[in-house]
């Protein structure tokens, strides 16, 4: 120990009185500034919260509830019953928590030995939970986990194959020489089916009439199923104006409009002059192909007699319009960049996207033509052509502009049709797949991967696991799901999904939450298609806005060659007239829909929020945050606060 005498005492002088006063004032001002910031933040939060409450109140008051089908009603009743049970259990668990009822102390007590009715009820619940409910939930959760891992593995394999394509720079090339004389160009039929699409008809007709293809070697069919007389006249006038410019274009209107889009296309193919054409290009009413589309797609058929379909990629004019369109763009970028491209190169088969594609008419008619037996006539003809031995190719570098649904209502209806139709088709064509002459490996791919894994298993496990089992496990701790299942794996898979659209990485978490939110719609559609319910046959034309901008037109002009620009000037009206038309389109106010309330989404929102409150009692951090944000996501969607809003 050191000698104390070696230490000396140093006198510390105090601060002068003026400096003390100055420091006191600085501290006071600093604290006042902090308090003002806190008050401002609280005021902002209160204002925002009050505004949200006002929107919710207005939405509830103005909402018009729609009658749902019998099966959808059963699902809603099931969710409501589950919500009521979860609320009762939450109240019971809160009481048990504050009363200090410890499971280890109560596990050996028989219900009849207790005096309190509430305690007896709680012990009865514990007994039933451990003996009957927990084993069932554990079994179902294990099944969903296995399916989830299998589907994730399939997604990873697709991504690895896509990386291989990029690494090897695999690109489809045209076999043979280019067309030299006019007679070398094959005859192409261009079909544009539409139905009451006043907002977009002019854009699509203008685009297909300006193809860089000999005028006498292609015919444009405008297949109009509109039941609005004014819309019919507008389309007729547009067709007449292009016919006067020398374009080979015809207008067809069916008196008996059966079969929806499939019936419309079938009617167009029944014309006598179709036998003079070798290929048919199909575009929906909101698609705007570039003038060189036919030159980039049709030559791939040359020298390839087994090729039945050439599919181009979609690009979206309104992908950054709102959060909903951004999330859709992420999904569709992955669909085209990974799924369609990989399946096209490695399997020569994929689902026809229904538009922006060119069919060999021989393949189309030889496979049975268009059928209206399902709501996915495009997938139907693709499967039948595949069973007949025809091959498909996908051109990832050929883009066609189109629109994304900007409202949740339109997107929900579109997704219902896209997920109910495949299950309808699977029921109808299963026997044909089994008895077809294609190889066993192609049959297995068609049944297990194309239909079961990607069309049935995906919506089943995503809804069951993350929307039903996960909140239940908060009240049934015996079946608790691991953290890696609800956090790490979903985030990793979402990162893979977002890779084809890297600039949307900031929307990673909203994308993950929204995909889980859409699972209830996809699950309902899948069940209705599989069980052949009435809602599986609902066909609603996706609402279009006809969005266009001068910048979009400028971007397209930059991609065109001088010869294409000169041809466009000759074929179209003067630039001033086109600009005036464009300004008129911009100035016309877009009709806004009345936002609705979606009851199933709201029921799931409150179920997940109730489960998140229960997770607080057991201090499950990751589970709490996931349930909280997923519940809020369902709440936002249920109140229709995503996408286009009514002003």
TrEMBL record:
Residue spans crossing the bilayer: 35-56, 77-98, 118-148, 446-475, 601-617
One term under GO cellular component: Golgi membrane
Annotated GO biological process: cell wall organization; plant organ development; pollen tube development
Subcellular location: Golgi apparatus membrane
Record keywords, A-Z: Cell wall biogenesis/degradation, Glycosyltransferase, Golgi apparatus, Membrane, Transferase, Transmembrane, Transmembrane helix
Residue span(s) of domain Glycosyltransferase 2-like: 279-475
Pfam family membership, one: Glyco_trans_2_3
Protein name: Glycosyltransferase 2-like domain-containing protein
Species of the source: Aquilegia coerulea (Rocky mountain columbine)
Organism phylogeny: Eukaryota, Viridiplantae, Streptophyta, Embryophyta, Tracheophyta
